[in-house]
Amino acid sequence: MTQNSDATPFTRFDVVSDHSDHYYSAYGKKQKYGGSVHKLIMKEWRILENNLPDSIYVRVYETRIDLLRAVIVGAAGTPYHDALFFFDINFPSDYPTRPPNVHYRSYGLRVNPNLYASGFVCLSLLNTWTGKKREKWDPAQSTVLQVLVSIQALVLNEKPYFNEPGTGSPGGSAGEKRSRAYNEDAFVLTCKTTLFSLRNPPKNFEAFTAEHYRERGSRIARACGAYVNGRVGVGYYRDGVEFEPCSSSKSKVVSKKFVGLMQELYPQLVQAFKKNGTLLGDLVEQLEVKKKTTPVNKVRVDKKAKVGIANKVIGKLRKLFCLNKKKSQKMEESDKEDVNAGVAP
Questions:
Q1: Neighbours of 218 (CB within 10 A)
Q2: Is 322 an annotated catalytic residue?
Q3: Which of 99, 111, 23, 98 has its CA nearest to residue 67?
Q4: Is the pTM for the entire model greater than 0.70?
Q5: Which residue out of 122, 224, 246, 322 is catalytically annotated?
Q6: Does the bond joining 96 to the residue before it have cis omega, within 30 degrees of 0?
Q7: What is the Cα–Cα distance from 92 to 110, expressed in whole angstroms?
Q8: What is the mean pLDDT of each run of 10 residues along the chain (345 residues)?
């Protein structure tokens, strides 16, 4: 929804005027943009306007063509699902010789190995990481749209732990275990990012942020319960349906640390969603953590096993007791004979 009218849909691409809170607002103010650069930026605008996917929204500025702001919706099947991630972008004066400058609106949180708390974005396409030549910025072919899609697909992905160099590739048991732990942390930080976004949304995205979380807040809250109670692995909650690949069945186990953090964070989320006008249905303000109990059948089997063992032990003791009793009786009779033998008739 737009800021000015609740009846007008929030378009994926639009031109706005207020850039006062843009990270690069003062950065390129004095830079001059020649005719060729101006044309290329206008070309970028057209590419974005006509080709943005449903999950990415962009605002450009009528008085500052060198600036744009984008928001990416976290994809299903990742620890970032349903959350909003904002990026401020600046075209350098010699664009496209150099790639655009990109700043992540982090709220001081590092939700991903490639997205620093400082806002730095580590990506080969931006020449901020030493990737292969074909992965780096190509002035003849690369575009801002490619940058945004790359961040969504390659950075905010299913297993962000493996984005970090030296962590290996998915598949190994040790790496997968660390990846699941990382997803727990990523989801917690993503929930915190959601709180900050609701409290202080970027300019020109205030109404969009509020409407987005009115629609998805209930799903996020339900996902919290599903993860904490181990019904599904972190990241695998979508459209009210819990799903998970067969290969990831072990990821249903969550750490005590994660449970504790979510119990603390969940009430804050519910309060923020309620304040925002989100319909939460039967969701309560406290996160219910179900205690795992031993199945009744198993208990019965265990009791029978214990009774059987006890009977065997008692039987052995009784047998031993009887033997000792008989032995004692024989010894008494023997002693009597010896005594009788020693007495004169």
A1: 19
A2: no
A3: 23
A4: yes
A5: 122
A6: yes
A7: 26
A8: 55 97 86 88 98 97 96 97 98 96 98 98 95 90 98 97 86 89 97 98 97 96 93 84 54 84 95 94 79 48 50 56 51 47 38
